[in-house]
Amino acid sequence: MLHEERISQLNDLRPADGDYVLYWMQAYQRFEFNHALEYAIRRANKLGVGLLVYFGLTDDFPDANTRHYRFMLEGLSETASRLEKHGIRFVAQKCSPPDGVVELSQQASLVVTDADYLQLPRAWRSDVSSRIDTPLYQVESNVVVPVEVASQKEEYAAYTFRPRISEHLNQYLVPLEMSRAKEPAPRFETDSLPIHDVSQVLDELAFNQNVPPGCFRGGIEEAEKLLRIFLRKKIDLFPDLRNDPSKDYLSNLSPYLHFGQISPLQIALEARTTESPGVDAFIEELVIRRELSINFVYYNAHYDKLRALPNWALTTLDEHRSDNREYVYTLKEFEKAETHDIYWNAAQLEMMKTGKMHGYMRMYWGKKLLEWSGTPEDAYSIALHLNNKYELDGRDPNGYTGVAWCFGKHDRAWQERPIFGKVRYMNARGLERKFNIKDYVEKVDSL
User: For the CA atoms of 293, 296, 297, 303, what is the dihedral angle to 10 degrees?
Assistant: First the structure.
């Protein structure tokens, strides 16, 4: 089902007499469960024209490197094949995405695009909306509940957001059947990258290549494989073991969600069919917590800075900024996992080796950055730098929110202590008390 609330027009123009409908794919890099693609197909069918899908590939996207580009291109290759199988042409170009859209829009009846929540992609859409001579429609598909339906403001914490989004959940948690394009794909001369040759495309891009690929392969096929494994073998114990880094009871789907290679709606619907006792806990993470992070970056323009924190956290951290720190490490020492703490080092190495860190360890990792950096500002900057550089799901609402949480966002004041003030504290003894944490260290060492 395609709810009208997912669709918004970003300019006031009327459809032109064009040769095709242009779908500017950027955030939803998939065929299945893609509401923007479905809307574009319906509009093309109604107008009696073909559909062209465009992806703009820029090699200077902030913080992106070889790891991110390879994973993304592996997914785009699969998506291009699925589109072509359904009679939809796919064009990928190395250029500024807005410039590519403006150029291709000259022959289009209208343009459809994805919704995004970070500042740069939102600026891209605003730029395009003012430069093209056709309508630009934005369709939300990387959330279950559209962000402005869920809430009209930045929410304080999960407990304020949960009832708001839960009110709408059943309305939007419904399948989406993809229509078939009735008209043949448009044929005209235009450049396109050889998207099925990932290595060749990587060779054509000039970007930071100092981070090798992790252990995850991109694409919907791999995402659906991980989802099947999770639903068959892990979801029943997810509520009890999700926070144990020595076990493997996470879905590991966050990189695929980050690149829009799989839909949260598809994941939630398939999880619900299992009738597992772990479904509610999984939906809490997949929908409530994930969409709370989107609420944060959508409504808070400072989501990548310390000033995004609540006033109580800023006040208490400032009051304790001069406290004595037993250890202070540099960015280089953190990045090389050269601290005195074997658990922290293991978390950093897991992220560097695989492209993903266990969620509970990421909380510990961020807390210790605060404890071992010269200032809260230094700690925040280092956390974002390392997270965005090595995590496949970095540069993402979840990533920005996860870092902010370590400094007090979406949390409450706790007992006051040095350095942290009233920000929640974590220590190594807590890891040892709750988990067989040495198993986690050994697992990371063996990677």
Answer: -110
- Integer angstrom CA distances of residue 90 from 54, 80, 84, 162: 6, 6, 7, 38
Which domains are seen in the chain, by residue range? 1-141 (3.40.50.620), 142-175+218-299 (1.25.40.80), 306-445 (1.10.579.10)
DSSP run (H or E) holding 113: strand 108-114
Q: pTM for the whole thing?
A: 0.97
Give the residue carrying structure tokens 């909380």. Answer: 363
User: Judging by beta carbons within 10 Å of its beta carbon (0-12, 13-18, 19+), is residue 324 exposed, middle or buried?
Assistant: exposed
For residue 378, name the pLDDT band (cuts at 50, 70, 90): very high
Model confidence pLDDT, tens digit, residues 222-273? 999 999 999 999 999 999 999 999 999 999 999 999 999 999 999 999 999 9
Given a contact cutoff of 8 angstroms between Cβ atoms, the answer to whether 294 and 144 are in contact is no
Whether residue 149 is predicted with pLDDT greater than 90 in this model: the reply is yes
Query: What's the CA gap between 114 and 28, in Å, rounded?
Result: 7
